[in-house]
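This is your field. Please look over both lines of this record.
***
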Amino acid sequence: MCDDPLHVLLPEPVARALADYRDLRDHHGVCWGETPLGYVVQARATVFLDERYDYREVCFRQLAQRHPGASREELKGRLGEVDVDRVVRDALGGDVLGNLAALRLTPEGVSLEADTRIVLGEEPFPPTALLLDSSRDEPVTVVVDGTAHEVPPRGAKVVEVEREALAGGAPVDLSPLARRAPAAALRLRAGFSCRWSVTSGNGQGWYPPGAPHKVDAHLRPYFHGDDLVVAVPAEPVTVVVTRGMEYTEVDLALTPVAGEETLVELAPERLYDAAAHGWYGGDMHVHMNWMGEEPAPPALAAAAQHGEDLHVLNLVAGNVASERVYDVEALTHWAGADLPWSDGRHLARIGVEYRNDLVGHVTAFGVRGLPGRYHSGFSGTADWPPNATACEELRALGGVTGYGHPFHRTFSETDPPDVVLDHGRDCSAREIVADAALGLIDTLDVLNHSSIAGTAAVYRRLIGAGNRLAVTAGTDVVLSFLRRGTASGPPGWARVYAHVGGPLTAESYVEAILLGRTFATTGPWLELTVNGHEPGDTLDLAPDDRVEISVRSIGPEVETLEIRTGDGVLAQGPPGRLTASLVVGEPTYVVAVAAGGPHPRAHHHAGAYAHTSPVYLDVAGGHVARPADVRWCLDWLDRLEAVLRESGRFDCEEQHAGHLALYARARQVYRARLPRSRLVGPETGMPDWVEREQ
């Protein structure tokens, strides 16, 4: 990593913005004072609730009690109204966490339950979150560190405790919160920057001075760097080191000696070296700051990128739920420039996330300047203009554009579009079907923190309908979150690998993506060739030509390989290598998919996954445009118009009409891709030309 002085990594405007973010955090907590939309409220709760706990269902139960008879869709619009502390209490169902102890206030008395933390030597007791959980039928007041908190009947409240608590005027014994242990130290050395985890037997993590106390989707503590000193208890600990998806994971169990520093020399080995073959992996959607427990400086992004050996990092400026655009100061300072820690193997840029919760969120990598807009539809403003306008502007600035975290439900290609579309203002990529037809969007983040399977199903419909879109990956990691599943995990837990011809630059990476020379993965290496051609290539074939298809994977998490065409699965087999022959009758595409269940290398809740961009098979000069997929896209546009009428916000009818005009243009494109046949005989009463599905 570069040794640039602080003023290079933290210029004055960025430093001022960070100070503002800290003030917001100090005054408002983890949500930084943002408008309480459903996902803003969820952010506060999921600092405590991970994938084990069903946050949304608990919310719906609470709202249904308040609004009997309301439909689920009506309740969904009220998710920002939930009592978050009660949701946390009810979802936990009596569990206590390492970052949340519980003070039970029962009719019989008071008891403290805690996952006891270790405190080193004579260090002061650290502040910890405390759930005040009442099963009493009357309000109760608890005084915590001198501040009185009234807990409503059978209610809950999360507070922070450091020194003392009084319930009913009597002191609460806080000793279960922590125990003391003699201190030791570890010096961690790999010879290059890595991701480290140091964990006690109780799961508690230990960090070097100044490192944020981050926890990944597996609830494993982690930090980045090399030759680091970490204070630990003189008790059994486990050290784990890895370096992103191209490396193995190595662990060591040891018991440090009290008062001594123990050298731990440990390094992961490579599984594969993508850059040696011209392939560079990138994460197209990472935030430095977007609410959270600890505002993140650029130096944290630099340490994470090098510690993960992440070749390309796209840090995006974006809003949450209001006018404020986080990290726009960094974008203003560095737009069009490589960030200071970039080198020949690692490239970092500041990009943009344009956000509309009704029709989708668009990210842009490689922008050379500032856009005029960053969002629409927030704080009661109009859903105007369509995302297409933002795509055009971001492209004019040199950006490659793609839809991020596109779809949140698992569904298949056989499901109708309304299964995808009918879920309110949930950030789904609803406009992509129109933007793809009009050539206004370049990519789709098939690998994302939400539904990978659902997004892959839509992706294959889109390319089957004749749209050229590259597969990409965007994790939506937020560096300012410490503990929130995939959002607090390491950048690059999913990556898009692009085959770059020559040196790695923003321009060469953009070009490779635009050519479709990509695959996206949670870890497995995935190769696809068709007659020796790679993703992004087009083969010009004659009817009945035969092609030979080969797929290769590397990675212990892979369980199955698939070769898919527009007709579905052509071949399936175990990991390693899969081959198939195809006699081509009509234009189609070929993609490869690798999949596996939950695995330590896979941070996504659904497990391991990789998906290539297509090799296109043109036949007799015709490009793939499958009638069933085209009609599916037309049905999508019809349903999207209904969603717009039901949920769209407009200042005038002209704005609504502007969206409809965009969809009408897209329909013309799709209809032109359908086969046509002249009818014989005027007695049918049909137009001369009608669409016919083959």
User: Anything to note?
Assistant: The longest strand covers residues 347-356. The longest helix spans residues 627-647. The two ends are 57 Å apart (CA to CA). The mean pLDDT is 94.
